[in-house]
Amino acid sequence: MMYILFFNLLSVAVALPMFHDDTGEMELPYLVYLRSSFQPCTGTLIHPQWVVTAAHCYLLCLKIIWQDYTFNDRQPTEQELPYEKVISHPNFTSISSEHDIMLIKLATSIQLTKKVSKCKIAS
Description:
Blueprint: H1 2-15, E1 18-19, E2 26-27, E3 31-35, E4 41-47, E5 50-53, E6 63-67, E7 78-81, E8 83-88, E9 102-106
Antiparallel strand pairs: 1-2, 3-4, 3-6, 4-5, 5-9, 6-7, 8-9
């Protein structure tokens, strides 16, 4: 039950944009884009070296992209993030939506800045 609550809260955190008081710009500094040969997905940066996402997002030719998601920019900055390890829930199967969670360990830590930050998760 705690896992269900945790991941529901996490999905809400991903869905809610962050607003800067001084500019009104909407940013998602913890969001990464998962590009593959089939379908796009998103993930959430939860640590400088870890991304959490849905296990069904692990597809052929997966690339993890960080993009400057400031919506006022016409030419957003984009950077591919190499990864070294993927850990899917051991009970995940592609025929069920249960246990649909996965961790991705990035090859190197991302330097956190105002434009790149991890998602704040209550402890």
